[in-house]
Amino acid sequence: MPQTNKKSKKKLEYLNSQQIVKHIDIKKYDVRKLVDAMGDMAFQAKNLNRASNIYVKMLKDKSCKIYLTLAGSLFSAGLKNIVVDMIKNNMVDGIISTGAIMIDQDFFEALGFKHFKGTPRVDDNILRDLMIDRIYDTFIDEEDLRVCDMTVAEIANSLEPQPYSSREFIREMGKWLVKNKKGKNSVIRTAYEKGIPIFVPAFSDCSAGFGLIHHQFNIKGNKVTIDSAKDFLELTKTKLNSKQTGIFMIGGGVPKNFTQDVVVACDVLGVEKDMHKYAIQITVADERDGGLSGSTLKEASSWGKVETTFEQMVYSEATIAFPLIAGYGYHSGAWKNRKETRWNDILDK
Amino acid sequence: MPQTNKKSKKKLEYLNSQQIVKHIDIKKYDVRKLVDAMGDMAFQAKNLNRASNIYVKMLKDKSCKIYLTLAGSLFSAGLKNIVVDMIKNNMVDGIISTGAIMIDQDFFEALGFKHFKGTPRVDDNILRDLMIDRIYDTFIDEEDLRVCDMTVAEIANSLEPQPYSSREFIREMGKWLVKNKKGKNSVIRTAYEKGIPIFVPAFSDCSAGFGLIHHQFNIKGNKVTIDSAKDFLELTKTKLNSKQTGIFMIGGGVPKNFTQDVVVACDVLGVEKDMHKYAIQITVADERDGGLSGSTLKEASSWGKVETTFEQMVYSEATIAFPLIAGYGYHSGAWKNRKETRWNDILDK
Amino acid sequence: MPQTNKKSKKKLEYLNSQQIVKHIDIKKYDVRKLVDAMGDMAFQAKNLNRASNIYVKMLKDKSCKIYLTLAGSLFSAGLKNIVVDMIKNNMVDGIISTGAIMIDQDFFEALGFKHFKGTPRVDDNILRDLMIDRIYDTFIDEEDLRVCDMTVAEIANSLEPQPYSSREFIREMGKWLVKNKKGKNSVIRTAYEKGIPIFVPAFSDCSAGFGLIHHQFNIKGNKVTIDSAKDFLELTKTKLNSKQTGIFMIGGGVPKNFTQDVVVACDVLGVEKDMHKYAIQITVADERDGGLSGSTLKEASSWGKVETTFEQMVYSEATIAFPLIAGYGYHSGAWKNRKETRWNDILDK
Amino acid sequence: MPQTNKKSKKKLEYLNSQQIVKHIDIKKYDVRKLVDAMGDMAFQAKNLNRASNIYVKMLKDKSCKIYLTLAGSLFSAGLKNIVVDMIKNNMVDGIISTGAIMIDQDFFEALGFKHFKGTPRVDDNILRDLMIDRIYDTFIDEEDLRVCDMTVAEIANSLEPQPYSSREFIREMGKWLVKNKKGKNSVIRTAYEKGIPIFVPAFSDCSAGFGLIHHQFNIKGNKVTIDSAKDFLELTKTKLNSKQTGIFMIGGGVPKNFTQDVVVACDVLGVEKDMHKYAIQITVADERDGGLSGSTLKEASSWGKVETTFEQMVYSEATIAFPLIAGYGYHSGAWKNRKETRWNDILDK
User: Fold this and answer.
1) What is the pLDDT tens value at each position of chain A, 349 positions in all?
2) Around Cβ D204, how many Cβ atoms within 10 Å?
């Protein structure tokens, strides 16, 4: 059973129990009036206001299912509880994430480990010698992370050897947490309990990858495999199952692209579906390098993925803008008329 | 057999045969003196010079294998031939890429389709109606892209139904191109011929994904699946097989993270390997949002992934910096003493 | 006497009285708990929290005078009232600004003109034909701006022909506003009434420049001139007059550099003064191009300008971060023990 | 007479004579074919190509005068000789710059001082103790810079006490260099010899400011003053004197705004002139914060300042893009038919 490693005195100077990253609780701060006022300003304050209002529109639209895409080192930075609250209050129906957020950060904390406030101005060679990993201005214990890797391996070892979508594997991780009475406030467990699918399209690109290759390398005979095509097929089925959809994107990367693509995927499977009706994105990425992360939602419209009526990008680092937009959505109360979608129940059939 | 769709007159105004993106040929421009002079300047010119020299160092180091990671919309922007030349001249041993670059762009052009010079100042709704997709200032024909999707489906249909790594699937795409006498100057075919593995860790997040779900949705019985864990295991095996390694990163994203991770992956499999000895990255991403793409190579050192002695980030959009750095490497001639590594031969055993 | 021009019907479509930019009122939103929570997060939320706390420290430090530097199109975006409130509540002792903010935006609104919410996706040629000027997503009436230019000319014509610092000229503009019963809530008038100096080191680079060249071009004999050296001397005198100083910087540019320089200026005049003890900056500028705007406050420390103990940069667009940091300072109440500094009284002697 | 200070041994470790920044010589590298090839690519390579071609167009247009605006720490980074070559070869008619570039960097080197290659990863407190100033990854000797300050004071002391435009003062600095046989390859001296005006609209915001306040603080009676309104009037006169104009902008800031403004200034003086017909800008600034530096040239068009037909922004750090664009212009030979404009002769009348 995983447990926090005993840390050396030197290590404790960096991983200080007084310096634990704490997750912000949007329920505590009614930001509505502040965000309303931003709507009469300009530049990114106005964009943040508009994105907040589009999110409320999504929540109010009874025919609309909501995808949340997550990229960037968000949970190590204190944004985990926002997602937990969104799940608990039916403010999201499906999650598409990078592996680091879900495994290295969420599952990691579910095991009882912590992220520590640090600084980018540090000698990384010293950190390495101490087995401390740095994420910009946060520190984690690499030894804790290895426990996380091995827990994934353990779960893989316990499963029927066959292909799994990342969603199915993460569902099993949720089940494991319940069984082992861990991670009560983790995203993986809460989503499991609420039947919300979590897709990690590049599932090996994180702590899970380490666990899985440990499994595949050491197990004789048939192995657990992760079928990334099945991920896409399952996500497409959620779109097929929805009348309208909206996307709330934090950062870009694979989660942004993957989720936008499902509209076209429906068409490839022979079913014409509406484009994503609503789309908002928080990002600092620039469009001028032609990369996907910073590409405008208007550009996505040329691909037939996103409608241009209700789309808004907000140019801001996520730790500042996400609490405001999600907080606005929460305090609007618009989610109160939404019900559980439990896509997992459909996908698991 | 795929073929360019007949385009409407209106469509031809946007997809003009006089406006085809042409790939730059680094062999033609000896940039060495220019880049040498940059070494006595400051800021990014100096960084570009240092990165170029580190690349030459990698090429000269006989014990060093070289990974190239690709993210961003690089081949649609005219950078494909650089990679082809790097492959042909043993300037790279393994490639890790986003799916869009390899499938939507490289395989797409291998099928005879083109990218067109366009503009970001256009009405995306008009483009969508014409089935024209925009990537910043380039246009492609969505109908051509559908042919690309379906060619992947066709290849999947023709394969033994079992789990494949993305590398294995892309190898089959290379084989298909040879057999169908297509894509002579594509990266996928050239890499296939040179035994160079191409990994796409988020393989469903691109045109391949559309082809694969078409396959899985329509085929009865056992299906082709894409095992992303196998990808990571295979990439790790290439590291296990190498005395020293260097990484040449264009952009960040999953390819950057995935490739840095193999050092730790070796450790997880119980084999201690040196960190990547050399590492250079071209990126416009910023470190201040804590995201992986802009995270410094020093930060990667805290994770035990990259040595700090020979690492250099260059803050530049790739279409400007990649031709200069790769061109410097090419004209140095340092690759002349390198041999084919043919990792595919080892991995296919 | 200036007055809003009658606008054509076509023009009114863009300059819509329902779409006037309104200035945010930080007094209404007690953001303390929200910003406190950010202190246990990471990345820019943590930085924003630390900057807020440093600002409170400045306010509490009885020996500390506070400079506010302003760059970027801040007042057209709804940030004017924050500065007015800072002035009224003794939360700032001196202001250093770009000309556009003070003249084209603050004095402009003092004359009764408005900024209008617009969009960056518009045909600028149409705007030009209508004499509408665009600032990203805001619009103003160029004809109104010409009235602003000419009012400056009128003020210049009324003054004794001699060299003025920008501070002296702006003080005269404040006096003019009082006399003409205009701009009750403008920064220029409020600062005038509170004896707070406003320096615009590049004073001709704005609407004032147009007024001044109109004056110099048309007046016979001696003319009003703007002595930029006197500006620097006067600003240096405020530093000489202070025990400790702190800087609150919004954006970079000339105001940032000019204000940091006064420490060295004291030394050049033969008086050794402490560096700026506190320094915070909100900016999206990047340090990697070597430019001043994005240069770190640590770099400023090498120049002997800023102490490194209490400095913090916040990577955020100003319309989002400035209300939070200034609001935190306001609701802290730490300004209640501060008194008027009235540097103008000293400088006017 | 100024001379390099004797440096301590410790100081020489940072200010190493083997590590002097050397200015790139665009005459040596014929980049035309490389830049031509970029024209068939996409993203910033294509933009760089287009900007280069617009510059050639300016050079070929016999009715067109060319302004060069300079912002950012350009000359400390090795870009000075490009400007010298542009001046010598009639590739520019007027220069508008920040003070730091012209005084702290150009005049500083004219006095025999140097910039040294350094690193941003250094303890700035140690640098300060050694009186070494850091500009990102370059170092200079603060003691040398003080000599530069005092040389400006000396020049001010020697002049007739009256208002000067920055251009007039800088012309005197050029005269001083000739007389003192210094700075043969400086921009200030070369421009002086070629009759090219240099405007520094925020002239006190640099080493000149220190010299000028030393002058004003210590001189009894009448003083030299710097009339920033005269700057604007003189620059406007150069526009009045030109049939067509083009702007080549490196960075943004005051020089960009000031130069764009002259079109409107002509109108204010009652003379209708064409907008700037050509405009190119190299910048990394972003438009999304509404700031001037990153504002698009299309936005400038709404203000009636820049025509939209031949404008192009290039998103690149200047040390990489400026040698390519200016080099393209140089090797095009298009300047060979241009003559000296000698605006100074007109302005000095």
Assistant:
1) 444 567 889 999 999 999 999 999 999 999 999 999 999 999 999 999 999 999 999 999 999 999 999 999 999 999 999 999 999 999 999 999 999 999 999 999 999 999 999 999 999 999 999 999 999 999 999 999 999 999 999 999 999 999 999 999 999 999 999 999 999 999 999 999 999 999 999 999 999 999 999 999 999 999 999 999 999 999 999 999 999 999 999 999 999 999 999 999 999 999 999 999 999 999 999 999 999 999 999 999 999 999 989 999 999 999 999 999 999 999 999 999 999 999 999 999 9
2) 32
Measured CA to CA, the distance from residue A100 to residue A201 in angstroms comes to: 12
Q: Which chains touch B (3 or more CB pairs under 8 A)?
A: A, C, D
Q: Identify whether A305 is a catalytic site residue.
A: yes
Query: Catalytic residues of B, which ones?
Result: 305
CA distance B308 to D186: 38
Q: Which of B148, B286, B18 is nearest to A291 (CA)?
A: B286
Please give the structure tokens belonging to residue B219: 């085929």
Across chain B, which distance is largest between two alpha carbons, in Å? 64
CB-based contacts of D121, cutoff 8 Å, min separation 6: none
Look at residue C25 and give its three-state secondary structure.
coil
Verify whether the Cβ–Cβ distance A73 to B217 is below 8 Å.
no
Q: Which of C277, C305, C339, C349 is catalytic?
A: C305
User: Cβ neighbours of residue B255 under 8 Å, at least 6 residues apart?
Assistant: B69, B70, B71, B96, B97, B98, B201, B249
Are A289 and D42 within 8 A, CB to CB? no
Looking at the partner chain, which of A131, A269, A293 has a beta carbon nearest the beta carbon of B213? A269
Torsion of CA A229, A230, A234, A240, to 10 degrees: 50
> What's the Rg (C-alpha) of chain D?
20
Taking the CA atoms of D205, D207, D209 and D210 in sequence, report the sign of the dihedral they define: positive
| Shortest Cα–Cα distance, B2 to chain D (Å) | 25
Shortest CA distance from A44: residue in chain C = C319
Three-class SS state of D258: helix
* Closest residue in chain D to residue B29, using alpha carbons only: D34
Q: Considering only CB atoms, which chain C residues are within 8 Å of A24?
A: 37-38, 40-41, 45
**For testing contact with chain B, the best of A203, A205, A231 (most B CBs within 10 A):** A205
Residue A148 has φ and ψ, to the nearest 5°, of: -60, -50
The closest alpha carbon to B60, from B332, B283, B262, belongs to: B332
Q: Are B210 and A187 in contact (CB under 8 A)?
A: no
Element (H, E) at D79: none
- What is the three-state SS of chain A? CCCCCCCCHHHHHHCCHHHECCCCCHHHCCCHHHHHHHCCCCHHHHHHHHHHHHHHHHHHCCCEEEEEEECCCCHHHCCHHHHHHHHHCCCCCEEEECHHHHHHHHHHHHCCCCCEECCCCCCHHHHHHCCEEEECCEEEEHHHHHHHHHHHHHHHHHCCCCEECHHHHHHHHHHHHHHCCCCCCCHHHHHHHHCCCEECCCCCCCHHHHHHHHHHHHCCCCCCEEEHHHHHHHHHHHHHCCCEEEEEEECCHHHHHHHHHHHHHHHHCCCCCCCEEEEEEEECCCHHHCCCCCCCHHHHHHCCCEEEEEEEEEECCHHHHHHHHHHHHHHHCHHHHCCCCCHHHHHCC
Of D214, D225, D290, Cβ closest to residue C225 = D225
Contacting subunits of D (3+ beta carbon pairs below 8 A): A, B, C
- Unique residue bearing structure tokens 């109104």: C144
Annotated catalytic residue: which of A65, A194, A273, A305?
Answer: A305
The residues, ordered by sequence, that sit 6+ positions from A125 with a Cβ below 8 Å of its Cβ are: B301, B308
ipTM for this prediction: 0.96
Cα gap D86→D340, rounded to integer Å: 12
